[in-house]
Amino acid sequence: MLRPTNHNLSFCSTVLYFVFVGIFFFDIDFFCTNASGPPNSSHAMNNNKMPDLPFGDINVVVLTDVHSWVGGHPRQEPHYDADLGDVLSFWENLKKHCDEYVDYSADADAANMEQPRNQHRDIFFVNNGDFVHGTGLSQMGVGDEPGNYPGFLIPILEKMPYDAVNCGNHELYSKKNVEYMTRPGGYVDWYGDRYLTSNINKRTGTNTKQLSHGIDSNYDDNNSALGNRYKILHGRNSKLLVFGFLYNMRDTVAPDAGIVVEDVEKVVKKDWFLQALSEEHYDAILVLAHMDLVDPLVEVIRSAIRTQIGEGTPVVFITGHTHYRGVKQLDDLTMTFEAGRYMDTVGFVSFPKKESVRNNNASSLFSHKFLDANQKVLFQDTLGFSRSEDGLTKNGKDLSTFIDQTRQKLGLKKEIGCAPQSYFVERHVDAKDSLWGLYRDEVIPKIFFSSRQTMITIEEEATNEDDDLPMAMLLSKDSWRYDLYNNATLIVDDIDAVAPFNDTVVHFGTYTAKVILKANRTLNEYHDGDDLTWLPTLPNFILIGSLDKYDANSTKYHLYSHEFGAEHVQKILRRLAPKEHGTIKKTEFRSTMIWMAFVDEYWTCDGAVGQLPEWFPTPQSVVQNLNSDEKDYKKLLIAIFVVMVILGLAATVIAMFWIFFQKYLLYQPVMGGGEDDIIEFQDEDIYKVDIAEENDHAGMTSMGEEDPENF
Ligand SMILES: [Zn+2]
Ligand SMILES: [Zn+2]
Q: What is the CA radius of gyration of the chain?
């Protein structure tokens, strides 16, 4: 039930990166550094300098796991100062260079070569998913549709001219998000056939139950991909077959969002996949795979491809999701590459066409570079401009302005306090600069426990109950996403960055310390195969509250958590304390607001103690809610009374009508079919008179009428 996010963050990030960085820079640089270049090139690079990148036959620029960090990190981590507009400028310069590039040395050599070298450079731009959950932008709706969906973020993202876009797990956690991005004219439509969802389907039936293995009984195999299953990208020298996979995300897809994630193992056996591999014409394969670069599913896809088409075609996996930089050569012609997170990295990979790998040493034709999302790195070091600002394109500058204005307009840049020091997520809870330590020891006791205690007291007065029980909280370590820096005055977006999920705090009921401590141990148990690299820093769940203060067997605690993953905690509680019938109840508190209120009250820039902001749930608001509940209750009683009276009246009318109906309207003389039943008039005179009278009446009537045909 955990948000599967950073679990491998520390794993591989050092090992793989340093092992593979810089191994494959040789042959391919030849194209770049030895090429004489066009004599009258008009490309935008300063002094006609070649970009400092290891170009190959096919080149790809990668952004992955941007998580709404479109404004960059200039305040928190000044080195990562490039925003999405800068990346767009970088891309436009690079694309222009590649479009205009002619390799004259290739012409000269062509006569002596078995295969002529490429005269142009093909370059593509891809995004590998996870665009929400990082900053305040991903929580902002539009107009009369406020709420947790990226109404202001998507118009920014849509300015990027990606050739292929993959879907990340974070896009699928919320029904509202799915609805917003899949609505007509929305994000999915915008990218059209470039939006690749090889294993994500729209549910086509009415049954909304997600089955455990990820396949729905109503799943229509032929016609239900959320986006496009695959696409051929056309360059001037090459064709690239591109897929877009998401790991086997099952339980955490938003229920009722109409989305089914199919298991990768099954998809790679499907006809459409095998036919694409066998029947399409292409020079190499690019697999956008939203999963770790060495996820076992990467191997599943790789071996399925190799089984179908053999060894001769280069395959490159653009991976992500685990938020680090890494690269690995899986076989001579297969590379897997992951380019960081939160827009700290602009990834670059290059690889050969299959025609170019007939000679030996094919793996040396694969290359890559991790570019820091830093203006100097992108524009000066890589593109060769003497000043970064010279590399900005009109579209890039417009996008930077658009991002800045949007953030201003939404109040995300509003200054709210000053942090006494920086705090980091990936630190042991007891470390002095631990963000979790700060939350456990200061934020929750001072803001949530104290406010909640006051509210409970008021609620008790209203309900005549007596409850001064202490409180505890069990939170997933993935609740926070970013460090809290004191480089600059804190703005709203700094807090949104720490807590971008804005989870609702939920109440499980009351449990003894013994049960809570046992639940904590169970939640933090590890199983064979678990990644234990986080052990020195953080457990899976963090327990907040002073549970050793009272008798563990008798004193009960109110237990809270975040709504996301609450069912998982509840299952364990039910197992440990079957007699307690706790239910998950939402409180008025949300995770981001608790942080925000803490900064407002305790981290004022002049050091004075502030006060809880107006929007924070107050004891008064609880009283108002209680009163309004009471009013609602009275209204409900009155409504029930009125309905009862109306129903009573209606029943009486129906009953009377029924009696009338039975007695008069349905009355018929007994008319049997047998001769014995015929009632004969004994007095024939009476009968005759009646008939004569009837005939008289008929005659009068006909005489009184005028035949219209006589006029
Ligand atoms: Zn991610
Ligand atoms: Zn992800």
A: 36
Residue 611: its pLDDT value, please? 81
CATH fold, domain 415-617, is 5'-nucleotidase;  domain 2 (3.90.780)
Q: Can you count the helices (H) and strands (E) in the chain?
A: 20, 21
C-alpha separations of 115 from 37, 111, 481, 520, 709 in Å? 21, 9, 50, 64, 102
**Residue stretches of the chain with pLDDT short of 50:** 1-2, 4-44, 47, 115-116, 206-220, 222, 534-535, 669-711
Output the CA 322–ligand 1 centroid distance in Å.
6
Specify the pLDDT at position 648. 84
DSSP state of 376: I
Pairwise CA distance, residues 323 & 134, whole Å: 12
Residue 358 corresponds to which tokens in the numbers above? 């007939």
Would you list the domain boundaries of the chain? Answer: 15-409, 415-617, 675-710
- Of residues 278, 275, 70, 269, the one with CA closest to residue 155: 70
Ligand number nearest CA of 131 is 1
Ligand whose nearest atom lies closest to the CA of 9 = 1
Does the model's pTM come out above 0.85?
A: no
Which ligand number lies closest to the CA of residue 168?
2
- Tokens 């974070």, located at residue: 170
CA dihedral 189, 190, 192, 198 (to 10 degrees): -80
Three-state DSSP at 544 gives: strand
261 CA distance to ligand 2 centroid (A)? 14
Dist CA 285 CA 364 (whole Å): 17
Note the pLDDT tens digit of each residue in 79-91.
999 999 999 999 9
Residues measured by CB to lie within 5 Å of ligand 1, the ion: 65, 130
Helix ranges restricted to H, 205-319? 264-267, 271-279, 296-309
Q: Which CATH architecture has domain 15-409?
A: 4-Layer Sandwich (3.60)
Query: What are 650-668's pLDDT values in tens digits?
Result: 888 888 878 777 766 665 5
